[in-house]
Write a structure and sequence with these properties.
Blueprint: E1 6-8, E2 14-16, E3 19-21, H1 31-40, E4 50-52, H2 60-63, E5 65-66, H3 74-85, H4 92-104, H5 112-153, H6 158-243, H7 252-264, E6 271-273, H8 275-280, H9 284-291, E7 295-297
Helix pairs in contact: 3-6, 3-7, 4-6, 5-6, 6-7
Length: 298
């Protein structure tokens, strides 16, 4: 990109060309607003600047605004240059595979309240079943005793036997219902616990995959940064032979890194530079040549 871009201000004024100086423009067209317009693209609000230009690469967020006190994460910026250049690394294929696995992983949802209720229901059904089983055993003994008493004295109390048998029959019916409820409650609890175990396993798999993705991303960023490190070292050496320490500021060393990164990066979109930085590079024309992309001075 050598100059095919246009800056349109809210009042309708337009600028084009490799270098645009906005130092004397209104505050609503200040460098910050223009930089946001460069990154955001079209359309914009009528009261804001509009930039017609290719969208910037990922490097632009690191070197899109160059001023004496600029701060830059050098290794992260170098990795962005590698991405913008389309550099391959040994980690790309595995990172893609692990990311696909992470996207495809389905983690079942578990209602903890439902699981607690199922456990409570199963426990209550079990307790009720055991209580009724003991009652049935007691009533069986009572029926047998009533029958034995009748047999031993020769004139058994039929009413007492019948009453005991009725109580046994009712308790047996209740036991059958409770046993059915216990089986249903146990089956439901088993189903929910299996689902809960699967959910826990899936969550563990997700955490493992997320850790692997992050490790691979770090390794990829390091490989990308290493790949472009020689180029930025060369650019920095050329820069220091050009400007020495002519640009003062707390971020002096960061500024040199940022200028070197900007020199080797495919930026596509215009960048904004402080007038002192432009002057240190030898003026607008020299700065444009250094960056290889349209320049906004402001």
């Amino acid at each position: 990109m050598t100059g095919t871009w246009t800056l349109r201000l809210p009042d309708g004024t337009e600028f084009a060309g490799p270098v645009v100086d906005v130092r004397d423009l209104a505050t609503d067209s200040a460098p910050g607003a223009i930089r946001r317009a460069i990154r955001g693209g079209c359309p914009t609000r009528p009261d804001r600047p509009t930039v017609h230009a290719p969208l910037p690469t990922c490097v632009h967020s690191h070197v899109g605004h160059l001023e004496p006190d600029v701060s830059i994460d050098r290794r992260t910026a170098l990795a962005a240059v590698g991405v913008a250049r389309g550099i391959d690394t040994p980690h790309d294929a595995e990172l893609d595979r692990v990311q696909r696995s992470l996207r495809d992983l389905s983690v079942p949802t578990i209602d903890d309240a439902e699981l607690r209720a199922a456990r409570r229901r199963a426990a209550e059904a079990g307790s009720e079943t055991e209580r009724l089983r003991e009652r049935v055993a007691t009533l069986r003994g009572r029926v047998a005793a009533r029958r034995d008493d009748g047999d031993s004295d020769g004139d058994g109390d039929d009413d007492a036997v019948a009453e005991a048998e009725a109580s046994l029959s009712e308790a047996t019916r209740q036991l059958s219902e409770a046993s059915t409820e216990r089986v249903a409650a146990t089956q439901r609890l088993d189903t929910l616990e299996v689902r809960a175990r699967r959910a826990r396993d899936a969550r563990e798999d997700r955490f493992r995959l997320e850790d692997r993705v992050e490790n691979l991303r770090r390794a990829r960023r390091a490989a990308l940064a290493d790949a472009v490190e020689p180029d930025v070292q060369d650019a920095r050496a050329r820069l220091e032979s050009m400007i020495g320490d002519r640009v003062a500021g707390p971020g002096g060393n960061d500024l040199h890194d940022a200028l070197a990164v900007a020199a080797i990066a495919p930026l596509r979109a215009p960048i904004v530079a402080d007038p002192d930085v432009v002057a240190a590079l030898g003026g607008p024309d020299a700065a444009f040549e250094w960056f290889g992309t349209p320049l906004v001075i402001g």
